[in-house]
Each structure stands twice: as structure tokens, then as C-alpha cells.
């Protein structure tokens, strides 16, 4: 198969596009990744150079080829009950102490294919029983949101789900669906998904009692992180909690937040 080569200028064009649009900073080392992920689109359109593809993309409507490039250049790895300490904290320090009286609202702000939002949903439903709650999941990639809405997963991706939750909230696929799992309808009905670009979140979103913003800050530079965190804090309830990924840091940019434990913050 023909191997495409990307020039420095072509790479810089895609790098600037994804930075301006999504805030994602691509280092020089990502040249191979960009080449391999976008090559299939050159083949799809029978194009010879990345410049031709860039021109085609930039003249497309936002929901067209631009969205395809965003889908291809984002990294969407996720799994159920990722970083279990966060779920232990949510259970013991937040849900066990929840007084009720209003709807408990959570935002999974870079939800990818939905595993994070459904993990939270299982725990919240189990702990709050009949008290009202809702979860909102969002991402910049429309491809992953489609998958999140389907709530249909391969069995080999469900390792982190506790057995009791598997029994209570998951339907095992039979026949042609053998080897898959569907999140129970009652749970799905309380979890909604929609596209949100963290660089420009809608003004009317929130407020939330808990926001999960995990494993996405690593793609942003300091200035972008600062802008995003400022807007995230505005969408939190007073006393609300923010969770970030274990390999991420808010060093120097957590105005309006106090550290509760490493990677968990509370609005002050
Ligand atoms: C590695 S996944 C993290 C998924 C999940 N939060 C977790 O921790 O398992 C990062 C997600 O961030 C999304 N993302 C990247 N830039 C974004 C932006 N500007 N706005 C919203 N989502 C973004 C990507 O599409 C991707 O699905």
C-alpha cells in the first residue's frame, strides 16, 4: 500500500487547526500519529498530498470533514471504573453524605465512549436509591458520542465493573449479541450525551455537584488549561467537586478551588 509522507508545513497546518479548534497541542513527535490517522482519508478521496486534504477539510462545513479530522486526532482511550480511588471517594465522601432535597447532577466533561458516565451512574443509582439524579456526558468527538448513546460494549472491555453492578445494571448479549453488554434502560434514561467543546462550553450548562474532567487536560497547554478550568469552576455548585486524572495537575491554575485529596478539588 502507498505510504503518504507529511511535510513540516502540512503537519503545522493540521497542528494549528486542532489547536485553534480544540485546544489540543500536538508536539513534533505526533507527526507519525497524524500521518497514520489521516492517511486513510487521503485514500478515501484519492488525494496525493496532505495539503490537498487540508484544503478540502478547511472548506467543508463544521459537521463535515472537519469533524472527521477532530474524531481522528483525538485520543479516546477509556474504561469502566478507571482510577478506582475516585469512585471510592465519590461513594464515601460525597454520595454517602448527600442530603438530597435537590437533583444530584454530575458532568462527565470528556466522556469519550461513555464508560466513565455509566460507571458514575451505576454508583450514584446504587447509593441514592430513589433520590433524584442525572448525569450529562459530553465530548468534542461526535464518533465517540454516538457510541456512548448506544451504551453497547464488548464484554472484554468491562473488567472494572463490580460483579454486583454487572448483575444490577447490565444486560448480557445473547445470540448475535453474544460477547457484548448493554447498559440497562432505566440507567440509560438518566444519562444524556451531547457535544461540548471545552474551549467554548455553552453558557447555560450547569451548575453541577460533581464534574469529572479526567485525562483530557494532558492534551492542553497551560494557557488553554487555565481558560478551561476558569469556565469549569463557573459551572460548579458552591461546594461542588472537580475530579481530574491521576497524571494531571492544576498547579498554579486552581483559582476558586481547594485541594481535598490529590486530583480532587472542591469549589470555595
Ligand atoms: C482519553 S479520553 C478521556 C475519557 C475519560 N474522561 C477517562 O478518563 O477515561 C479524552 C477525551 O477528551 C476529548 N477531548 C479532547 N479535546 C476536547 C475538547 N476541547 N473538548 C471536549 N472534549 C475534548 C477527546 O475527544 C477524548 O474523547
SSE topology sketch:
Elements: H1 8-22, H2 31-44, H3 50-58, H4 65-73, H5 84-95, E1 104-108, H6 115-128, E2 133-139, H7 142-150, E3 152-154, H8 163-169, E4 170-172, E5 180-183, H9 185-188, E6 191-195, E7 208-213, H10 222-234, E8 236-244, E9 257-261, E10 264-267
Parallel strand pairs: 1-2, 1-7, 2-6, 7-8
Antiparallel strand pairs: 3-5, 4-5, 8-10, 9-10
Describe the structure in your own words.
- It is a single chain.
- This protein has 268 residues and is of the alpha/beta class.
- It has two domains: 8-73, Chemotaxis receptor methyltransferase CheR, N-terminal domain (Chemotaxis Receptor Methyltransferase Cher, domain 1); 84-267, Rossmann fold (3-Layer(aba) Sandwich), CATH 3.40.50.150.
- It has helices at residues 8-22, 31-44, 50-58, 65-73, 84-95, 115-128, 142-150, 163-169, 185-188, 222-234, and strands at residues 104-108, 133-139, 152-154, 170-172, 180-183, 191-195, 208-213, 236-244, 257-261, 264-267.
- The strands form two sheets. Strands 6-2-1-7-8-10-9 form a seven-stranded mixed β-sheet, sandwiched between helices. It has a three-stranded antiparallel β-sheet with strand order 3-5-4.
- Helix 6 (115-128) links the parallel strand 1 and strand 2.
- The longest helix is centred in the first third of the chain and has 15 residues, at 8-22.
- The N and C termini lie far apart (57 Å).
- The mean pLDDT is 96.
Amino acid at each position: 500500500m502507498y505510504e503518504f509522507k507529511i511535510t513540516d508545513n502540512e503537519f503545522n497546518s493540521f497542528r494549528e487547526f486542532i489547536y485553534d479548534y480544540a485546544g489540543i497541542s500536538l508536539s513534533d513527535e505526533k507527526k507519525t500519529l497524524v500521518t497514520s490517522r489521516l492517511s486513510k482519508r487521503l485514500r478515501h478521496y484519492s488525494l496525493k498530498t496532505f495539503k490537498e486534504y487540508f484544503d478540502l477539510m478547511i472548506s467543508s462545513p463544521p459537521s463535515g470533514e472537519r469533524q472527521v479530522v477532530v474524531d481522528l486526532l483525538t485520543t479516546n482511550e477509556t474504561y469502566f471504573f478507571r482510577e478506582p480511588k475516585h469512585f471510592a471517594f465519590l461513594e464515601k465522601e460525597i454520595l454517602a453524605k448527600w442530603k438530597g432535597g435537590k437533583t444530584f447532577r454530575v458532568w462527565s466533561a470528556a466522556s469519550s465512549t461513555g464508560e466513565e458516565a455509566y460507571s458514575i451512574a451505576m454508583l450514584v443509582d446504587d447509593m441514592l436509591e430513589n433520590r433524584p439524579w442525572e448525569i450529562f456526558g459530553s465530548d468534542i468527538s461526535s464518533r465517540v458520542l454516538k457510541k456512548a448513546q448506544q451504551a453497547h460494549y464488548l464484554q472484554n472491555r468491562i473488567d472494572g465493573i463490580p460483579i454486583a453492578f454487572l448483575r444490577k445494571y447490565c444486560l448480557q448479549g445473547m445470540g448475535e449479541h453474544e460477547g457484548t453488554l448493554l447498559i440497562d434502560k432505566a440507567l440509560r434514561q438518566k444519562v444524556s450525551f451531547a457535544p461540548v467543546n471545552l474551549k467554548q462550553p455553552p453558557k447555560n450548562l450547569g451548575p453541577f455537584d460533581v464534574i469529572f474532567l479526567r485525562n483530557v487536560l494532558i492534551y492542553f497547554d497551560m494557557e488553554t488549561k487555565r481558560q478551561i478550568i476558569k469556565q469549569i469552576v463557573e459551572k460548579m455548585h458552591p461546594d461542588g467537586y472537580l475530579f481530574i486524572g491521576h497524571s494531571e495537575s492544576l498547579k498554579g491554575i486552581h483559582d476558586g478551588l481547594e485541594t481535598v485529596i490529590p486530583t480532587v478539588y472542591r469549589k470555595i
